[in-house]
Amino acid sequence: MNNLLPFVILILFIAIQRVVELFIAKSNEKWLKRQGAIEFGNKHYKYLVFMHLLFFVALSTEKVLLNRGLSAVWPIFLAVFMLAQFMRGWAISSLGKYWNTKILVLKHAQVVRKGPYRLLKHPNYFVVTTELLVVPLLFNAFYTALLFTIFNFMILSIRIPEEEKALSMYTEYDEVFRGCHRFIPRIVK
């Protein structure tokens, strides 16, 4: 049972974090829609949510059924996870009322280019991608790490272009992020 305690603590931490994020997102969604924001990507959003829920099921199943213990290099994976949490908080606070789990675009809104958005176009997706790999590896859940890296790639290959297209249509997104890669950090001069 001792082997299970770190897993339960981390899963509870992530679950509580997600619930808090959903409350923030819902509050921001209401505000954005009152300002006239337009929603995009609602066809794929349910699959994104389903993937994240399925991640917890798959990870827990692999951990328990295959009796996966902590990785021998767990401090490294935990450090990467904690850095990702810092970046997540930084991304959310940098976007403020504009942060959401949905694609909501306010016409002619000023594009945020502060915090981690000075370095990356999509720091929040970078964080999620990191988590979907690092959390399973922390517990030697190799099947979950591989499967959800693939699932995440599939959903983001739909979501990111749709988000960028929407932002490009209604804001100065292309101009603001010219020369900035989606996931490779830009060296700030």
Structure description:
There is one protein chain. The protein has 189 residues and is mainly alpha-helical. The protein has helices at 5-34, 42-65, 74-95, 123-138, 142-170, 173-176; strands at residues 38-40, 103-105. The chain has one domain (5-176): Four Helix Bundle (Hemerythrin (Met), subunit A), CATH 1.20.120.1630. The protein has 6 helices and 2 strands; from the N terminus they run H-E-H-H-E-H-H-H. Helix 4 runs antiparallel to helix 5 (142-170). The longest helix is centred in the N-terminal third of the chain and has 30 residues, at 5-34. The model has no long low-confidence stretch (mean pLDDT 93). The chain crosses the membrane at residues 72-91, 133-155. It is a multi-pass membrane protein. GO terms for molecular function: protein C-terminal S-isoprenylcysteine carboxyl O-methyltransferase activity. InterPro entries: ICMT_MeTrfase, Metal_cation-efflux_comp.
Which helices and strands, and how do they pair?
Blueprint: H1 5-34, E1 38-40, H2 42-65, H3 74-95, E2 103-105, H4 123-138, H5 142-170, H6 173-176
Antiparallel strand pairs: 1-2
Helix pairs in contact: 2-5, 3-4, 4-5
Question: Domains counted in the coordinates: how many?
Answer: 1
Shape: elongated
Written as H for each helix and E for each strand, in order along the chain, the element string is HEHHEHHH
The name of the CATH architecture is Up-down Bundle
In whole angstroms, how far apart are the ends? 51 Å
Strand content: under 5%
How many alpha or pi helices?
Answer: 6
Specify the CATH class.
Answer: Mainly Alpha
Can you give the mean pLDDT? 93
Question: What Rg, in angstroms, do the CA atoms define?
Answer: 17 Å
